[in-house]
Amino acid sequence: MKRSIPTKRTTIYDLAELAGTSASAVSAVLSGNWKKRRISVQLAEKITRLAEEQGYALNMQASVLRRERSKIIGMIVPKYDNRYFGSIVEQFEAMARERGLFPIITCTRRDPALEIEAARAMLSYQVDCLIATGATDPDRIADICSAAGVRAVNLDLPGSRVPSVISDNFAGALELTRRVLANCEREFGEKAPLLFVGGRGTDHNTAERVRGFRAAHAETGVAVDETLVLTCGYAPEKAENAMRAMAEKVGTLPRGMFVNSTISLEGVMRWIRRSGHYADRMPHLGCFDWDPFVAMLGDHIEMVRQDVPKMLDAVFEIIDSGASDLKVIQIPPIVEQTG
Amino acid sequence: MKRSIPTKRTTIYDLAELAGTSASAVSAVLSGNWKKRRISVQLAEKITRLAEEQGYALNMQASVLRRERSKIIGMIVPKYDNRYFGSIVEQFEAMARERGLFPIITCTRRDPALEIEAARAMLSYQVDCLIATGATDPDRIADICSAAGVRAVNLDLPGSRVPSVISDNFAGALELTRRVLANCEREFGEKAPLLFVGGRGTDHNTAERVRGFRAAHAETGVAVDETLVLTCGYAPEKAENAMRAMAEKVGTLPRGMFVNSTISLEGVMRWIRRSGHYADRMPHLGCFDWDPFVAMLGDHIEMVRQDVPKMLDAVFEIIDSGASDLKVIQIPPIVEQTG
DNA sequence: CTGAAAGCGCTTACAG
DNA sequence: CTGAAAGCGCTTACAG
């Protein structure tokens, strides 16, 4: 890969020469802090005009190298394949720009090694701050950042080294489970436990959601068997396989389900279609996470929509304020019925 | 926002001092090209070990500033809210990393002003190359890049200044329309024109898809009225409004539809539910773009899945080869039936 | 008030 | 073969 035209780019020295002044003056004018320097308005205008004519663009590598802070903010994110992370990334970018920060984002595909590599790369690019979203090992990332004197914040999954902003997974799961239980009872006239599918048993969010799931059952006096909690991973295939395995073992599956993420739901729906298991009557579904098409999939699908704007507000508040106490901020998600 | 610990980061000079050698030697060892310098293996190992111990990280801002090429590659993308752009971004990142390039991505929300601003920002960060994905004004971006001597490639939407990689929209739309027409004829026993909803009449892809839509109708001898082509924009609300307006004006809508993107489909499905217009029988749907949940929405939804891996292969081939002839490479999409 | 000069942390051509 | 030195394009403390 080579530059097509090896153009020598215009620098502040070129501009200084053209304007008959110094590079310092040009820098001051173009960076906007020239009032302090009492540069004449006409010189300022001349420089601005020349910069435009010459197509001058600040070399950020040089600028950042010289400055105290880079004003670059990094984020790592697991995937771009669902609405939740998509909106996190999109809103993060917008909020960063609003604050005059340059966002750089890397998708790490839930791969621990890639996460570390990406974090190191961002530190090499001198990020002022790094947001670890849904990281498999947030504390490792926090340590790496800390060694470089860079602030870090966890998003979506909490860590123990730096502040975290996450959804209130317990409350969301509790309400979601209540609703699905109620929907089932209304339709089938009996209280029966739901199936929990998807996520990693070891991650904090899944653990909290399972806790909410169990609490809702306990409230209504329904026992939850161990075998009803399939924390098989997020990937569609994993959810699909877990359903198949369970059906083979148990025979009949519950008439209501808590699916832990739209990603897993993809596999669940595929299995339902292919197996024909629910051919007579579709199960009542609750899904942690939101997707507009999932909302159209059935008549009584309940979904938990995580409150991304509030979560990012909290993240930037931590960043802006410089707070670094080890708090975990839990943002209530929104549970909505659709259909 | 401030760094929590104003740590002075380790530089090659620190390492040189610790190792009792020069910064040049450290640089040569750490950048991997030290065989040419005949540095002793043991010195190399010592330096490597020290770097590790000290948590040394290369300052890319300094490195890039000094080097000929930055090895940074930029991409602008309209949105992160659908599978198509999501997979483009995810695969682009992976392919860039494979080639030792550092990807930076900005989402411009189909906003022409933001696109230009983002392109300029990327040039300031010294990208070697910029990929304009689905840009509203690709030629403007190409001009800005060209002025800075930076290569550009268009993706998804073509431009006239630099090479473009796009889907074969005509062929995809032709096949999609044929299938939906056939599905309708099979179920309703009569040939009738479909409705086209979504996209911008002015953009190349939509124009090509409309052309394919018309061609498929022409093949089978069905006339397409002007009023049946609603290129109302991509946003769900726009599609929803266009449907409502048409229903109010015409009364009865066609029993088959070509929906131009999953984004627009969201609005179409919403209108269908709310209006109850198709309460007796769902229309046959074809959707340009693919989404796993859309596939589950009905029994005969046809979808066009754009071939992202092939498209990105073509993009990187252009970049790697340094080709800059103004070709437009059209990648055949995959039309798949689901349900 | 304003410009010359130092220096950010690297890479690499060049002198020894 | 190897290190000292120049220089990438900025920003800013400092001398005039």
TrEMBL record, chains A, B:
Keyword Cell division on entry: no
GO MF, any single term: DNA binding
Positions of the HTH lacI-type domain: 10-67
InterPro entries: HTH_LacI, Lambda_DNA-bd_dom_sf, Peripla_BP_I, SBP_2_dom
Keywords: DNA-binding, Transcription, Transcription regulation
Coiled coil (residue ranges): none
Keyword Transcription applies: yes
Listed PROSITE patterns: HTH_LACI_2 (PS50932)
Domain of life: Bacteria
PANTHER family xref list: HTH-TYPE TRANSCRIPTIONAL REGULATOR GALS, LACI-RELATED TRANSCRIPTIONAL REPRESSOR
Identification of the protein by name: LacI family DNA-binding transcriptional regulator
Organism annotation: Sinorhizobium chiapasense
